[in-house]
Specification:
six-stranded antiparallel beta sheet, Jelly Rolls, about 250 residues, alpha+beta, single chain, elongated, 2 domains, three-stranded antiparallel beta sheet
Length: about 250
């Protein structure tokens, strides 16, 4: 079954103080893959890191796109923001270094630029956050055929590999596990694996503990957006692998 993404939040495992440390490591450019360091293994953990601001940009966009597709799930984000606020209130205060210089810089800074109301953007297939990240919508994706019945567009952003995937109805992807964390947002259609069904707006979180063989449902293509911080590792029998590769 897919991880729960709704309901009240009262999880002692969610440590916003530690997430602040993770955010500092992310911003410092540490060589260790960011999502592995943060131990993101459930959707709830992913949402907590989203609230803490410690996700790499592609993962942040994936969560924001999920919330655009399922705005009712913003309740979980609100609960987590309340927890983060409580954690901040419990943080020991520290004096501001060089107070006068900081105040001088604030008061001497240029006033904010007045922005005109943005023109209403045309309806798009991709969530707006995703469209802003990749720069195009589904009808202009420069797809590359990787396998029969499987097309992909991939680039590296902020230390992660991001991929848009188009999977033919009924097509199975080769069985694999993960050397890091793989986040997948379903944009249209659906796929099934041993954990259950993932449909539009659902997020799949997979790591080295997950060995799966996603199969697109037969009624329509499955279109998805994924973020990986390390390569996948093919598994399964040689015979199954050959069958999945040729489609």
């Amino acid at each position: 079954m897919q991880a729960a993404i709704c309901g009240p939040v009262d999880d002692p495992a969610i440590d916003f103080h530690r997430m602040d440390d993770d955010k500092a490591i992310t911003e410092s450019g540490n060589d260790q893959t960011v999502m592995v360091h943060q131990h993101i293994d459930t959707v709830d953990a992913l949402m907590a890191h989203y609230v803490a601001g410690s996700l790499p940009e592609p993962a942040r966009v994936l969560v924001q796109s999920h919330l655009e597709m399922k705005p009712d799930h913003r309740g979980l984000v609100k609960d987590l923001e309340l927890l983060a606020g409580e954690a901040l209130e419990q943080t020991r205060a520290t004096p501001i270094g060089d107070r006068d210089a900081r105040l001088s810089a604030i008061f001497s800074s240029a006033p904010p630029v007045e922005r005109l109301p943005a023109a209403e953007k045309p309806q798009s297939f991709f969530p707006q956050s995703l469209r802003d990240l990749v720069g195009f919508d589904v009808d202009t994706v420069p797809w590359k055929t990787k396998l029969p019945g499987f097309k992909e567009y991939s680039i590296d952003i902020d230390g992660c590999e991001i991929s848009l995937m188009w999977i033919k109805p009924g097509r199975a992807l080769p069985a694999h596990t993960h050397k890091g964390t793989e986040l997948t947002l379903i944009l249209d259609g659906a796929f099934n694996d041993t954990r259950g069904r993932f449909g539009p707006g659902d997020i799949s979180v997979a790591d080295e503990t997950v060995d799966h063989r996603p199969v697109a449902e037969k009624d329509r293509p499955c279109i998805a957006f994924s973020v990986l911080d390390a390569p996948i590792k093919l598994t399964g029998s040689y015979r199954q692998l050959i069958g999945d590769l040729i489609g």
